């Protein structure tokens, strides 16, 4: 009988040999740093006379792929419900990005690499309330009262809740799920970005994620709770007993 072993990751991984899902430590995706990014963001708002969001609570995590040549591509957001709730912030972030020029490629051992960058977009801070030197004060969601945001405990909880009975694999497989940790600390809008190719097993993954929803403390921007888009990557392999 085969046993299934899970490896669960909550932090960025290398997508391929050519693309990094995060910028290396101490590197920034915009020339001049994040302060320069937000200053340019505000200046473009003023220059183009863009409209503020009527809902001052809108918040969006903009993901961009910054290529080796410093060009950018949008990373598709599969969570349509989250986009609908933050449509103005989503549209604004993408519109401004098209006019921003000072992108900075990541490097590994001195060689430029394509990498995914994430920007916290809280439109209410970027219009008339903007001040030079602005940086959003962001805190990650945390699971329970554990150290390091409870990542290890959440991993254990997910593995313990996944019922693998009745399934058998002959090789490694990979699953990617994304979900929203709401400002109330609940888990909603689970999207399977990469399926196991078995509907029933995907349902068990979703159940394992959903069953933790009451133990989360929400992410915050400038001390204000926000809905946060969270990605879960699960790798598994089987061994013969």
TrEMBL record:
This is TonB-like protein.
